[in-house]
Amino acid sequence: MSSRDDDESAAASAAEATTTDVELLKRAWRNEKAAPEILRFDSPLVSRVREQIQLLEETLDDFADSGVDDLVVSLYQMDLDRTLFLLRSYLRLRLQKIKKYTMHISRSDDLLSQLSLQERRFAKSCAEIMEKHLEQSVLSKLPYGYDSVTRQSLSSTEDDMVPEPQLGTFVFCKTKSDVGAFQLDDIGEEVVDLVADDLYVLRYKSIKGLVEGGRIDLI
């Protein structure tokens, strides 16, 4: 690695260290909202945010008993409300994606590994309920060969009845550091120079690895 890369990496680490957990949660929320697929659950971040919420709630209880100025109480309450909103919205977005792509997620060990323990239980429960409902209401009444939950018929070579996220969707994104010349396709005909703090509109599947690696934020 060159000295320039070392400097950029050190600068990125320093910037990350000064970023609050609420700001990190907001970034995770934006990425989750813009990404067509479900992203990896940030368990350490969510745990830290929950601890902060509990601390804020305990602080507000202490304020109520000690007669702290109403303005101070109001500021703490606003901070608590904002953090609660972000956390709930982040978790709700993920549950919506799990419900939408239940069958797709439940059949992929890689996707299941990106979920929290509670989310995996939820995905499994949704898949079981959906399969049972389809069996009882539709599939049991269809002729042999057309009674699969995931395939149109026995002649299908893949699960063509399972909704999947459209990874080719265009997304707005912003680079966090200089990436340099980046190949957008498999054959090298599409190359773009990704500069730090610049905005781009690119296909999600092309920058999926950069999003997962934290080098690009979706907006």
UniProtKB/TrEMBL annotation:
Entries under Pfam families matching the protein: Sld5, SLD5_C
Xref: InterPro entries: GINS_A (IPR021151), GINS_bundle-like_dom_sf (IPR036224), GINS_Sld5 (IPR008591), SLD5_C (IPR031633), Sld5_GINS_A (IPR038749)
Domain GINS subunit residues, every copy: 71-137
Record keywords, A-Z: DNA replication, Nucleus
Chief localisation class: nucleus
Statement: the UniProt record of this protein carries the keyword Lipid biosynthesis: no
Biological process (GO), any one: double-strand break repair via break-induced replication
Gene3D superfamilies, alphabetized: 1.20.58.1030
Annotated DNA replication complex GINS protein SLD5 C-terminal domain residues: 165-219
Domain of life, source organism: Eukaryota
GO CC annotations, alphabetized: GINS complex
Biased composition (Low complexity): 10-20
Chain spans, region Disordered: 1-20
Compartments, as annotated in UniProt: Nucleus
Keyword set includes Nucleus: yes
SUPFAM superfamilies in alphabetical order: GINS helical bundle-like, PriA/YqbF domain
Role: The GINS complex plays an essential role in the initiation of DNA replication.
Recorded family membership: Belongs to the GINS4/SLD5 family.
Protein name, as recorded: DNA replication complex GINS protein SLD5
UniProt source species: Setaria viridis
